Amino acid sequence: AFANESERLREEFRRGVERFGVETTTYEYDGKTPVVRVNSQSLTEYLKAFDCHPAGSHDKRVPESVLTADDETVAEFLRVLYDCEGSVSPPDDERGRYVRFSSASRELVVGVGILLLRFGIVGNIRERTHDGEEYYELEIGRSDQHRMFRRHIGFDHPEKSTRLDGLCEIDSKANVHTLPLMPLLEDARDDLGMTQAEFYGD
Description:
Blueprint: E1 2-3, H1 7-18, E2 24-27, E3 35-38, H2 41-48, H3 64-67, H4 71-85, E4 86-88, E5 99-103, H5 106-117, E6 124-130, E7 133-140, H6 143-152, H7 158-168, H8 182-192, H9 196-200
Antiparallel strand pairs: 1-3, 2-3, 4-5, 5-7, 6-7
């Protein structure tokens, strides 16, 4: 099943599936996101050969076939993933300026972070709660990181692409370092009772 508000993305999904000779059915409900459904055991078995196994939202992960793929394939995978599931802050967002990817699966978010590191893009993973449900967010901050994302990954989604261009023009600086081991460093700083300036220096 593929659910998305964008008719263009739903059409791309339909075309991709139909290349395998499989039919799709679109379901549209009042007040809900349209869903394109595919019922094919043979397609499921084909995807399993690429380590793409059926999984619920909490158990999704980056397939081994993508983790070991070449940079061009990884960039395309990330572009499609962010087109469908990513978000971009407006340049004037007071909550911060980020390119974000969210999922109920921590393993998937960590896998996406690992793929981004290939291109020198560092994200910060945060745990969030919404309506009592835990999920994970990979945030890419700072204009230099946004420019790296635009150069190597980018968006095909027009609105997200425009927002990313806006973020890239802002010469923002991070308030804190965004290394993946940041939570460990912050715990150590708290234990020592030091300020950020004392602990990190310049």
